[in-house]
Amino acid sequence: MKYRADNDFYLFPKELLNNEKYYNLSSNSKILYAILLEKHYINNELGVKDSDNRTYVTLPNDSIRELLNVSSKNAIIKMKNELVKNDLLKQIRRGGGKSNKLYVRIL
Questions:
Q1: Which residues have C-beta within 8 Å of that of residue 2, sequence separation ≥ 6?
Q2: What is the 3-state secondary structure (H, E, C) of the chain?
Q3: How far, in Å, CA of 64 to CA of 22, rounded?
Q4: CA dihedral over 69, 86, 19, 14, signed as positive or negative
Q5: pLDDT digits (tens, 9 = 90+) for 86-106
Q6: Is 90 exceeded by the pLDDT of residue 52?
Q7: What is the pLDDT of residues 30-45, one digit of tens each?
Q8: Whole-number percent of the chain with pLDDT over 90
């Protein structure tokens, strides 16, 4: 199935469930990955690229907290760290109160 930005659902790679490499990921981290994956595809279509022509996503922690109904900022940081540890996400700090650039690894 080809991804479309107007889908009413998130793409969720089966590999997150079927590959034992990802068994240690929390369910919320897997859902966050699906959200970031969608944003990656949208930004790719919009041409949101860095100076190396790589697609990236920016999504403030407050937005993630609302999407996942999570009250703790530390929980969001933990989810992102799980994705980084499992080589599914790379974060680049931008400073100045800006959201990090998030590079999603496509499974």
A1: none
A2: CCCCCCCCCCCCCCHHHHCHHHCCCCHHHHHHHHHHHHHHHHHHHHCCECCCCCECECCCHHHHHHHHCCCCHHHHHHHHHHHHHCCCEEEECCCCCCCCEEEECCC
A3: 21
A4: positive
A5: 999 999 999 888 899 999 999
A6: yes
A7: 999 999 999 999 999 9
A8: 82
C-alpha span between 51 and 69 (Å, rounded): 34
Calculate ∠ Cα 24-30-32, nearest 5°. Answer: 135
Report which of 12, 17, 106, 100 is spatially closest to residue 64, judged by C-alpha positions.
100
Q: For residues 51 and 92, give the distance between their C-alpha atoms in angstroms, rounded to a whole number.
A: 13
